[in-house]
Amino acid sequence: MLALVLDDAEMNNLLVVAAIRPILGCQPHDFTVPAEALAFARAHASEIGVVITDYDMPGMNGVEFIRAVRAIPKLANVPTVMVTSHDQRSLRREALEAGATDFLAKPADPVEVRARVTNLLALSQAHRAMRDHAALLAREVAAAVALVEEREREIVSTLMRAAENRDADTGDHIARVSAYTGLIAEALGLGPAERRLMSLAATMHDVGKIAVPDAILLKPGPLTPEERCEMERHAERGQRILGGSASEVMRLAADIAVSHHERWDGTGYPNRLKGEAIPLAGRVVAVADVFDALITERPYKQAWSLERARRYLIENAGAHFDPRVINAFLDRWSQVEGALSPTRLRDSDVAAA
Fold first, then answer.
1. Cα–Cα distance for residue pair 75/143, rounded to 1 Å
2. Do residues 172 and 91 share a domain?
3. Strand 48-54 versus strand 27-31 pairing type
4. Residue 256 and residue 179 in one domain
5. Confidence grade of residue 50 (pLDDT, cut at 50, 70, 90)
6. 105 and 48 in one domain?
7. Alpha carbon 187 to chain centroid distance?
8. Are residues 288 and 184 in the same domain?
9. Residue 249 shares a structural domain with residue 316
10. Of 49, 65, 124, 134, whose CB has the highest number of CB atoms within 10 Å?
11. Both 193 and 334 in a single domain?
């Protein structure tokens, strides 16, 4: 490891370097100008095992130099020794507060210098070993998490392929709902990990429709009250399909499945939850799901224009939808428009005219 030695007096540097050169694995580099020593420290931060600095120097004293060294991320914990002829408590306290690890008095005793630097290099080596081990563990954990996430995506993909076999439009719909969910979550201030989780879970919001008979699911006209009741059961069925899993994304997907048809005013289904009693993810997916349903042609309806769908969301904020979620969606409106092709926009406008 490298040992950085700084003293404006060349002779003092020579004495310290001579004392530590015999230490196995130690490569001393001495400087008389603090700025040059600091530049070397930045360039070789990952190799430096100990810093030895004088106190009295022109331009930058030893305490200021230690503070500057500590500001370099890779040197935040490197052992640092101050060599000084001063024996003032206030100076030592200031140096300790700046990050000094140890002190050596002038004139330096070569035996003491060598012993202390040997110990500090061993401390530095141990710290590096711990840091490297922590980094290795972090990489292994990240790899394990990535594997779990990949398995979860495979499970989601399998469920969605099953759903697509029931309804040709389902695949496109869930992709768009997932995208809108991510935009809303971002506008609400959720972090990247939460956004990814909610977007993935949102793809399974209608998985309970697997159990809905084709005669109802694909019916081109209005549903009878009995058929409507059967259709609404898909929320609870989705929860049963997805619930009970140890997977975080599956648990969130189960919450979304059962709650995305609840309404802010408490008139939704299946549990007539009201306001913030509805899980946030359910409130977010409710907006994304309804919006996409409005602008998409279905067997029983034509597609609405974007402007008409936007007005519907605004008019139903506080009744059907959480007003805060509506505001978040509108904050990302330009991105919503950009995600839809010009051709589709024209078709939607024509259909609604």
1. 28
2. no
3. unpaired
4. yes
5. very high
6. yes
7. 15
8. yes
9. yes
10. 65
11. yes
132 and 23 fall within a common domain: yes
State residue 82 phi and psi, 5-degree precision. Answer: -105, 130
Average confidence (pLDDT) over 319-336: 96
Residue 175 in any domain: the answer is: yes
Give the model confidence (pLDDT) of 147-162 as tens digits: 777 777 777 766 666 6
- Residue 82, beta-bridge partner list: 53, 103
Q: List all residues 6 or more positions away from 66 whose beta carbon is below 8 Å from its beta carbon.
A: 51, 53, 80, 82, 95, 98, 99, 100
**CATH at 113:** 3.40.50.2300
Give the pLDDT score at 165: 58
Q: Given this model, what pLDDT does residue 351 score?
A: 35
Residue 255 identity (one-letter amino acid) = D
Residue with tokens 């990949």: 150
pLDDT at 307 over 80: yes
3-state secondary structure of 58: coil
For residue 342, how many other CB atoms are within 10 A of its CB? 8
pTM of the full structure: 0.58
The single residue listed with the structure tokens 């839809």 is 340
Report the 10 Å Cβ neighbour count for 322: 21
CATH label of the domain that carries residue 329? 1.10.3210.10
Q: Which of 281, 294, 276, 287 is nearest to 340 (CA)?
A: 294
Domain total of the chain: 2
Q: Output the CA angle 239-240-244, nearest 5 degrees.
A: 95
pLDDT at 276 over 60: yes
Question: Which has more confidence, 116 or 88?
Answer: 116
Residue 152 lies in a domain: no
The answer to whether residue 350 scores a pLDDT higher than 50 is no
Tell me which amino acid residue 222 is: P
Q: Is 126 exposed, middle or buried (0-12, 13-18, 19+ CB in 10 A)?
A: exposed
Residue 155 lies in a domain: no
Per the domain annotation, does 239 fall within a domain? yes
- Tokens of residue 308, six digits: 């008409």
In the chain, the amino acid numbered 289 is D
Same domain membership, residue 347 and residue 232: yes
Q: Helix, strand or coil for residue 277?
A: helix
